[in-house]
Amino acid sequence: MLDDYKLKGSTKKIEIEFELDSAEKLILMEKHIKLTCSEIINTALKRFISQHKDFLPPTPENTPKSEKISK
């Protein structure tokens, strides 16, 4: 299961800010499960994106099938 968290493909560095409590918990998780912060955040963000496609701008691949049919 921990292999699911490994970074696959190209990567890009970005700078982000976290609330202090979230940052401290992320550091504790990193030490406890021996995954990098990047691996944990990348997995969490992928899961968030899969549940919140409505946050993405409309594109043909992001448009639900029901909307494609009605147009």
Question: What do these coordinates show?
Answer:
The protein is an all-alpha fold and about 70 residues long. It contains 3 helices and no strands. The chain has helices at about 20-35, 35-50, 65-70. The protein starts with 19 loop residues before the first helix and ends with a helix.
The structure class reads mainly alpha
Shape: elongated
Order of helices and strands: HHH
Largest sheet: none
What does the radius of gyration come to?
16 Å
Provide mean pLDDT, rounded: 87
Low-confidence stretches: none
Number of strands: 0
Q: If helices are DSSP runs of H or I spanning 4 or more residues, what is the number of helices?
A: 3
Oligomer: single chain
Spatial separation of the terminal alpha carbons: 41 Å
Helix content: 40-55%
Estimate what percentage of residues fall within beta strands: under 5%
Features:
3 helices, 49% helix, 71 residues, mainly alpha
Q: Concise description?
A:
With 71 residues, the protein is mostly helical.
Per-chain topology:
Elements: H1 20-33, H2 37-51, H3 65-70
